[in-house]
Design brief:
Elements: H1 2-5, E1 16-20, E2 24-33, E3 36-46, E4 52-53, E5 56-57, H2 60-73, E6 80-85, E7 90-98, H3 103-118, E8 126-137, E9 143-153, H4 154-166, E10 170-176, H5 177-184, H6 186-190, E11 202-208, E12 213-219, E13 222-229, H7 233-243, H8 253-256, H9 264-273, H10 277-301, E14 309-315, H11 324-332, E15 336-338, H12 341-344, E16 347-348, H13 362-369
Parallel strand pairs: 1-6, 3-16, 6-10, 11-14, 14-15
Antiparallel strand pairs: 1-2, 2-3, 4-5, 7-9, 8-9, 11-12, 12-13
Helix pairs in contact: 2-4, 5-13, 7-10, 9-10
Length: about 375
Amino acid sequence: MVNFLKGLLENRSKGIGVELTPEKVNIVRLSKKGQGYKLINFHSAEVPEGVYKEGRSIDAPEMAQVIQTVLEKNKIKVKNAATAVSGREAVTRLITVPAELEDNELRDMVLNQEAGLYLPFPREEADVDYQKLDLMIGDDGIEKVRVLLVATRKEVTDNYINTFEQAGLQLDILEISSFALIRTIIEQLRQFAPTVPEKSEAVAIANIEYEGTEIAIAVNGVPQFSRTVPLGTAQIQTALSQAMNLPPSRNTELLQGMSIPRTVVDAVRTEMTGTNPGAAAMIRVLGELADELRRSIDFYVNQGENQEVAQLLLAGPGASIGQLDEFFTQRLSVPSSFVDPIEVLSLELDTEIPPSQRPGLGVALGLGLRFVT
């Protein structure tokens, strides 16, 4: 499994990014174009209900068939792929180890000693990898190296490997979805990383997906904290449908046409009076998500000498809800803005992608970037 998580910050050539979600598969292939990139392939296909759930394929043959059909329909011959596992299925930790360690000593310490201290499951059941980041001076005045530790259960990685093998693909890279998103928006994050490292600011990222929201906090593009909460577009859609007496639906496109009140006062008034039952239902779920974001930010800030969070970036399909940035800005007192991966990457398109769909492409594009040299 090490080969699948290895090289979190490296790129390889000739491959596709394949994002698996409960509602759809997104397949992306990119190439370098000047100072930006060109989108060679972007294709999506719906995933039948019950095929993919809680970060893994429940029905691997059916999921493999969905992937294979997209590849055949669009005549994509590339056989190497990168995909991402949900943060709920992974453990990530930043640790420090002595800087004088040789590479083989570092590897042994991280994989065989340190890893066991942070895993909520037995070490022998885990696939573990790591990435050296940078040097620092510890509180004891000794130079140390920071290491990003990543782990998943073997059964999770085996599930992904099996699914891709059945689809006729070689899974070269398996990483955490928040890492893929950070890769896509790294230029946007760098504006909070001035030339003086001590003045760098932390950025919170909320990737609002179907089953939940991945919350990550990064400094200089390096994830410092991550957490997944079970509040996503499925929960928002369910609340909206129930409030408007609509039949249950997995199609969350309705949310793309919805907007929430511009001010907290208006939102509270809407929720209390029920003048707009659909908006009031959305506000209740989004209010719960705002509370979870606040808890995550407070927890991070209160750990030692961590930086204040200067910005909240909104990504994922849920970020297509109108005025959500203003809602979170007022609820959290943290400036919030949407992620537009197309703009951030200076991505050249043959076919225009509507603004409402763009925030949801961050992970898929980040996976595609793994094969651009």
